[in-house]
Automatic annotation (TrEMBL):
UniProt keyword list: Allosteric enzyme, Carbohydrate metabolism, Cytoplasm, Glycosyltransferase, Pyridoxal phosphate, Transferase
Any Pfam family matching the protein: Phosphorylase
Domain of life per record: Bacteria
Cited Gene3D superfamilies: Glycogen Phosphorylase B (3.40.50.2000)
CC cofactor: pyridoxal 5'-phosphate
Organism: Novosphingobium aureum
Subcellular location: Cytoplasm
Enzyme Commission (EC) number: 2.4.1.1
The protein's name: Alpha-1,4 glucan phosphorylase
Stored SUPFAM superfamilies: UDP-Glycosyltransferase/glycogen phosphorylase
GO BP annotation list: glycogen catabolic process
The organism's taxonomic lineage, starting at the top: Bacteria, Pseudomonadati, Pseudomonadota, Alphaproteobacteria, Sphingomonadales
Top EC group: transferase
Amino acid sequence: MLKFSAVAAHAVPKTPGGLHRRASVPSSPSEFDKHIVRVLRHRVGKDERAAKPHDWYNASIYALRDQIIDAWISSTRRTYESGGKRVYYLSMEFLIGRLLRDALSNMGMTREMEKALAAHGLDLAEIEEYEPDAALGNGGLGRLAACFMESLATLDIPAYGYGIRYVNGMFRQRIDDGWQVELPETWLAHGNPWEFERLESTYRIGFGGEVDVENEVAVWHPAEQVEATAVDTPVVGWRGKRVNTLRLWTASALDPLKLDAFNAGDHFGALSEQVRADSLVRVLYPADSNAAGQELRLRQEYFFTAASVQDIVRRHMQYEGDIHTLPEKAAIQLNDTHPSVAVAELMRLLVDIHQLEFEDAWDICKRTVSYTNHTLLPEALETWPLPLFERLLPRHMQIIYAINSRILREARKAGCDDAQIAAISLIDETGERRVRMANLAFVGAHSVNGVAALHTELMKETVFTDLHRLYPARINNKTNGVTPRRWLQQCNPGLTKVIRDAIGEDFLDDAARLSDLNALAADAELGERIAEVKHANKVALVGHIKATMGLRLNPYAMFDVQIKRIHEYKRQLLNLIETVALYDQIRSHPERDWVPRVKIFAGKAASSYHNAKLVIKLANDIARRVNNDPTVGGLLKVVFVPNYNVSLAEKIIPAADLSEQISTAGMEASGTGNMKFALNGALTIGTLDGANVEIKEHVGDENIVIFGLTAEEVAQRRAGGYVPREVIEGSRELSQALSMIASGVFSPDDPNRYAGLVGGIFDHDWFMCAADFESYSAAQRQVDAKWANKSLWRESTIRNIANVGWFSSDRTIGEYAKDIWKVL
């Protein structure tokens, strides 16, 4: 590997393309440098003098990709030659973020790329900024899938990730006058140099039609068909040990242009089939508040799942030749309920195409499939109106009925009563008949796992109570994790260097070795060095916010951060209410020694989620008022950073001092942001919810700030006649804060804007904002006291970093591999 040669650090003018040019390094070009130049000329079509920044960006990726392809092909060959078992991870989301820095780091080529670009006066960090975030996910579910794919490659486990190649993804968020505005995310506008189209992996996906019986075999005759074509992206593991495949599906019509209709003047009608196909891969989670949106979501889920299952079965038959050995060679993991129809699709292929007996097919299906549940929210456990499901997927509906009859007979033999059988059934009969996709995934899998210890126990007690009684050995726990490569080494190189200097390099290969820092937790010099890195990260974030939003922040203040999907159960509203109370207290009691705080929010609200979008507006209304009030000076600032994505998280998380993980207890499955913040030395303020429970166990009670009701206490309150109005009237700070919000103090242009939002807290307070306010407020003052003691805060910071190595996705995937997939 070539050594990096430093370049001049003085300010230099930008090129016409907008990139800073540095004085080139006066040394002979390296082999990698020569390769980049060849790629620039022969694939990008530019020479060095004419090339613009985006040309160098593409050339850099193509040159790196050449190195990756060799490892990719080698990995695939090793799998074929060994006849090993493959893992197939099906997910609606893969929030992979930018790949250039990730791939360079994992291939061990960062310094080579830095030197090669520096030879042309270019800076790698600036080149990296040209890469758009892939719009393939929205939140924790998708980011977890991305971390898992990287860990699968790191642990040398052959794997494919399967999903949809969204053209526009969720949406690009813009804030106009404080309101969220949804715009198309055009990440593919200039192509994607990472991907490879695989025309040979094309499958026909049907919808609608009828089912006939021919020679005692069911034959589905779809009324409509589209083609799914694979587009592959390499996923590089740490140190390039293995390169796995992220296979995403794009859709096209069988007859994309009806030429006769076009020439007859019906231009729109001539393209209607292609438009219909294109809608399948256009947007992630289209709004389902109407019948058309519901249908599109079901079409999307079946489209990608059917293509994936057909691809898995085709590959197995190509290399093994015997469908009966599928469970020994393939492990299909369903990431939440979205791909649950895979159970019915796999059964269709086994019974109708490979003509197995139903019982044999059912045995193969259950031994092949496993299912991860990510939520206890009833609305997130997908169900589909039975008429819609039967119209779109008539053969699958027949198969689901057949499965259901077997399951219900089994339940009756096991002594289940009518109520239990009704809960177990794959068909919800309580109102409009609906197909329960979570139940289908549960009965069609040999393993059903939760993603945190608390979540797994609550699964047994709530959403899957009766299924758990029927199959008591099926539910298990696999607490989530995050990849330390992206979420420590790459996003926080300064902290990584300090840790390396302190304990050596073993933690780079095994995050559990971060525990060696415990012996140095009270070391003042180490605490000072980590604090210096944190400050530098805060300065960098301040610069980014100033450049993008025009807001000046104080890097010496505590950075108090809540960045995640906007949802009522995640309680950004509770944070904002306490912010208003703090604002009021600072103004009322200027004589107190207040800790300067910067409250940072970011996240997207689903486009049809009114209250979540209203919370975003409230955050911006409070920010406008607080940030322009000279009476609070530099003691309090509020900022809502727009268009939250992976790249923004990589800037904010290393700069955070305090991590807000304040969901209503019992409602967050796990969380992974809590792990990323702790890994980067932020202290957690949170409820005993999701993985917070296990983080507390690992870092110690004195290094985390816990408040609020437990999950059991929340359930008791909801069942016991909780009267939030009494709680509000008993708390002066809470009642004043809610009054300020509801009366229009922060919305003088529309004084009633937040009346309904606040009224919901008075009326039912389902998410326990009032119930937890006093405890939360007291916990914040506890944080203030700890912040004032620098040595104590720094020691807690080190303890957090030292003790969250267990939350590596390598550990999580290792547990999946041993306990569920049986590949290690």
